[in-house]
Fold each of these.
Amino acid sequence: MELLKGTLDVLILKTLSHRPLHGYGISRWLRETTREAFQVEEGALYPALRRLEKRGFLESRWEESETGRQAKFYRLTAAGKKELARSLRSWHDYVDVMARVLESPSG
Amino acid sequence: MELLKGTLDVLILKTLSHRPLHGYGISRWLRETTREAFQVEEGALYPALRRLEKRGFLESRWEESETGRQAKFYRLTAAGKKELARSLRSWHDYVDVMARVLESPSG
DNA sequence: TGACATACATAAGTGTTCGATGCATAGTGA
DNA sequence: TCACTATGCATCGAACACTTATGTATGTCA
């Protein structure tokens, strides 16, 4: 399933709200949680991570992964937590507005 | 509120499922139905209408509008109705998958 | 040694939406 | 009569985000 442009950020923020994680781990967790429905491409993921870090919502550190290799772990900042809350509200609002249109009685 | 890229088409199809309508009317109906939340810009709307017509989901005809002026009325084709049904399913599926992630228990 | 999973990253291409702008007609109110 | 607002079409450029493709490198296991 293709991602709707604009929804990747909140997915990442939510994923990181559980625990710090590296890019590959984020991708894998999302794939599993969505039962293969969302396959986040690296070309989308890494730019998104940099974008979010640049905006101050994430910070990163090289650490050792579960497999013993070096990996860049991202964690939510305080600003990131606020942004996650905002994004969740936005998403729900959006879904509500869409419903107003899509569930209007058809002619 | 900004539109998520990819959601405009289904909004247009749904709007036209009620009755044939011209661009300006689509824009106005959407604005009213969403209580000002979605303001579809002309620069997005007209290209989208042409796109949908080109794909065979809409057909257009110049007719007289309620105000007595000539306007291009778009109506759903049979293919457009099928596409609307498909799009509605897609949207609902998407919302469900998003929920799986966004409502996962936070750490 | 060769395949596969892990892990990073960038570049090119595509598609969609937004914002700005332009044209034209009609009605309303000062 | 002038200005403003609403109606209605349309195009163009910029911005943005995602996809596809590609490259690098390490570790593990058969």
Amino acid sequence: MSDRTEPDGRRARGDASRNVILERATDLASIAGLDGLTIGRLATAAGSSKSSIATLFHSKEGLQLATVAAAREVFTARIIEPARAEPRGAHRLVALLRNAMAYSRDRVFSGGCFFAATAADVDSKPGPVRDAVRAALTDWYRYLELQVEAAIAAGELHTDSASALAFELVSLTEHANARSLLLGSTEPYEVAGRALAERLRAAGASRDALELLDQ
Amino acid sequence: MSDRTEPDGRRARGDASRNVILERATDLASIAGLDGLTIGRLATAAGSSKSSIATLFHSKEGLQLATVAAAREVFTARIIEPARAEPRGAHRLVALLRNAMAYSRDRVFSGGCFFAATAADVDSKPGPVRDAVRAALTDWYRYLELQVEAAIAAGELHTDSASALAFELVSLTEHANARSLLLGSTEPYEVAGRALAERLRAAGASRDALELLDQ
DNA sequence: ATAGTACGCGAACGTTCGTTCGTATACTCG
DNA sequence: CGAGTATACGAACGAACGTTCGCGTACTAT
């Protein structure tokens, strides 16, 4: 590297460094899990030093928590925010499912869905990191469920249990992610998409709500 | 278990040690993944030494392969073999689903389904271990699909695509495993069980075939 | 009986892990 | 301006990693 003795005022924002590092960290963790996310590998991947990362995040647990938070922001920006353009209920529900599938299919993170990749190696050891991953997933599940409930209240869907229907829908999206990674194919997304549409149609979803799934 | 402890037994001792170690190894890997399965921890868990494990399995990769094979045997013994008592088709399909849910719910491995726990941290790095895990899962998926096809051929089920229906069914069982581990609750198995029954009923499954799910 | 093979363990190897310390530099604030 | 804070790095730490070697011991094979 060249001389860092430039009196420029860019040193103020360590947040910029943090963001660069977290961008790599979320990607690395989606591949190797939150355990496999080591400070050494992250340092070389981000072009910095181990001690820099240590001082920026204070500890490995701090790094993991910041990584989960960063991944959650991406998740929200990619899935939740765009769906707010659709009215609450069936339309927003379908938009959420479509966005979730696209977020996995487009490999926003190299290892597919960040939370699917990290949930496994986290729910065996208690601590704030597990709590953070759990909270992200349960909030996501709950938000889907809320849209199902809203759709039922609006007469757009008919089913015995909103939570059961939400369970079925998320099962399909997550298995599409898992099997796509397993087989290295995008076909599971099409299979899951058709199953989602069929399931919603059976629950009484209108055709124009389901159209969102084909995009 | 100890049927073959003949006094003149050849290297029964070595095989016995291997079996003891693999029993702990499958359990450990279901919790920490095949990467988190370290020789040191396994040694203390099995009450042996690091070097013993190294000589018995030649390398970490050898240990991982043996662990996957051992887990696969348990999977087969718990899920496939008992289902052979049912006739090919809808009955055996339902028995397989019921056994798979019980295998996860009963925590045959402490970390839930072995392959769900290890698939994540394996499908990002090529090699024989990933191939072994992949083969186990694809064989399982294919076997389920075969039963769906047999059920269709026998007029027990009606659906456009056997593979799509099998996809939906396995989605539910795997998500039940994942969410049970996430929430520390057995309720997801009941939700998934009801969804499985409902889906099969919609495909024309007979009542006596579905009765198997309630056991 | 002799040679050969498979265990089983302790000890050490080189590497990587997370963490800490010292130091240099840049920005913020009293 | 000076005190304090934050970034960034190199160096080093103890611990754990996978692996290898040597040395016994038990069993098999010829």
